[in-house]
Amino acid sequence: MVFLNVPSIVFSAEAPAKSSPSSHIIYEDAVQPIFQKHCVKCHSEKNRKAEFDLSSTAGLLKGGESGAGLVAGKPDESLLYEYLHDGAMPPEGSPPLSKQELKTIHQWIQSGLHFKEKPQSTTTAALSQHDVLPILYRRCAMCHGPEYQEGGLDVRSKANMLAGGKAGAAVIKGKPDESLLIKYIVEKTCPPKAEISRAGIEPMTAEELTTLKSWIAEGLNEVNESAEINLAQDPLVSKEDRQFWSFQPPQQATPPTVQHAELVKNPIDAFLLRKLEAQNLSYSPEADKRTLIRRATFALTGLPPTPEEVSAFLADKSDHAYETLIDRLLESPRYAEKWGRFWLDLAGYADSEGKRSADLIRKYAYRYRDYVIRSFDEDKPYDEFLTEQLAGDELVDYAAPNSATPEVIEKLVATGFLRMAPDGTSANPVNRVSDRMEVISDEIDVLFRSVFGLTMNCARCHSHKYDPIPQRDYYRVMAIFKGAYDEYDWMTPQPFSNQWKRARSRLLTIIPEEEQRAIDEFNAPIEKEIADVEAKLKAKKIEKTEKKKLDKQLKALKGKLKTPEMIRALWDRGRPSPTYIYRRGDENQPTRLVEPGPPSAIADGISPYHVEPIKQTTEKTGRRLAFARWLTQPDHPLTSRVIVNRVWKKHFGTGIVKSLDNFGALGTPPSHPELLDWLSVDFVKQGWHFKKLHRLIMTSQAYRQSSAITPEHQKSDPENRLLSRMPLRRLEAEELRDSLIFTAGQLDETRFGTPAAVEVRPDGLVTSKRSEQGWRRSVYVRHRRKEMPTFLEVFDLPQMNPNCTVRQNSTVVSQPLLLVNNKLVHDLADLFAKQVREQAGNNPEKQIETAYQLAFQRSPSPGETELALSSLKLLEQPAEKGEQKDKAAPDGLTEYCHVLLNSAEFLYID
Fold this sequence. Notes:
The chain is mainly alpha-helical. The protein is built from 34 helices and 16 strands. It is globular, with a radius of gyration of 33 Å.
């Protein structure tokens, strides 16, 4: 019998209770049969659920994704026993362990873990390249890897190390102390002191060095470990798991027959009315035309209609006046700005890096914003839109001669979607592997919550607690992006100076040859002047005052140089490092090798993920392009469902699936599952076009309802999940700001380009600066993470950490206080009043009529007119005898206009 004492198990410092050898519980005799009966089905060498293999003693002692499962002498501190005792394992539906079986395992752990023969533990098992390569990638590949091969040495494989570099072989089989690789590390020649902390370079730990020495001493063992699995047959995900509703391809049901067929404008109404009629309910009466045009115009453009547009719509008595209105709004350039912002939330768009206090500005991020708006403008199909953002660089051969066409540049700009998460790795020493892993983690989070409607990030550290997403699925997804996002082959998010050795930027410069020639010709004489000034500065004898003059001249000359626009892009370099599962998400604890692939739960009924390597001017892995094509196949279970649900929520206030970013087990089941599937299938059939989806939703009778609430509604549909009425909607932050500016006649509708600058006061107030034409739309205002425009932030503009999948509407006291006291709002009220005077002259009644038309697109009621006239009279009454009127005080009309801008009718859409 053996009492095992190896580092891979946590042993108690206290000796286990004394017992005679005959009373010891022996693993092979008493415990192993229990594990064979209850556990090995899920925890074997092949399956390894939670990365735990109970089919061998070595696997038992190694533990799983949460670490060692056994603490000798302490059953209550042993994770394995805890899971069994609490009933967490075996899973629901499997027979639980009996009391006697639990008692046997408890006694075995309590007595000290006894075996017949000393098992082969992880520390005594032969080491292989998979134990060593992660260490070399983490500590050495920055100088001896894909980008740099100092001394001619590449450490990324055994063959490369045996071939060695200029000094000879890096390793000698069986002789660690004679191997140059070990000598240089022990002598601290590698990494050089000057390089430590640069670009993630850090010294090897003692434990890592021991592992490396042992591998060499044992003979440089290599094993062929297959990381490839059939996703459709992944043993960690059962057939029952794949039957979950959101993992099955959507099916287009036949619209049902309803009692009130006259209310069915399109199939949406049939699905909704069926559930309403089951509750003896129906739609609310149709809203009046003035309400409909305001509702539709704000929904599609984020701005109010003009009084002239309202008058024209009211005068149009044709049967299709409303449909014509929707078509006109969908063609407005304002539509793309409103709905482009919808996608920018999901992407986590920001004009700065975040993470660090410096919050560096992303000078070229706006190009991605413009790409998104242009895509909505031209109604780019969603499948194409997604593919460009996930793999635009793999769609085009941008390195080929004469490749800098607008189409190629657009595809590269599109990959900015994968560059929007906070990224603090611009400078050292915050450019370690752990820092890089945070960026990758955030990007995976952005992608899955926005596009898949799944929470994936918990699987970085352990298998998902509620959804069938094993930990290895997370790392398979990570491997998809390894050609571009590689924690061991990193590129910084910002341009870098020459002294930042080993730094490489993820900013691309790609311009047509003729443009480059023009820039070169323009810069040539300036560069000559710069060289002359620099030569003078290098002169040994130079007066201090002359030196200052030359420094100033040099700075001015450099400022004249023309530089090409850059692209904030992600691109594949065709050289991904191997991907290992990290125990507990810790990159210092690599375990098994995995190949790229999507979540295995989403495999039934659709084409498998398949990679075809891309050979263009430069090699590319093709992994992301394969992923994009897998994701955008017509019958994918989640892609169309998730985006259709998001658009539905923007129109009706609540999604058919209320939990927009969680279509998993903890998410909210769909209120109308057949409708969601019908919409999803129809969206794909109609070419993945957003405009067709908007038109379908907005021309339904459901969308045209009044928002009036009756006692019957309150009783039978209190949360409006059946859509028995149209919900009242508060304007979003951008809509409110833009509407204030628009109503004042001060909206600068300049499109695209660099963001509008902001002014940051010492007290923290952040306001956008006015252009010559007025104020630009909110989507074009600079959004720096630590300096968000105050007005927008108060009205719930979300922080992009890393993105926003659901906008929240708060009602807090700071909102009315801002509308009452903010200087910009006061200035806009004054400009609003001036516009009223220009249109109505000095007649008070005409002024009130004009103000109502501009603010609310309606005429005031007689009572409102009477109240307004008395208010104006009061506000504009002359000062008392002997008193002087304050010249700085606003006039009565301005005050009245300010009141209108503060009203609930301005803030809410019926």
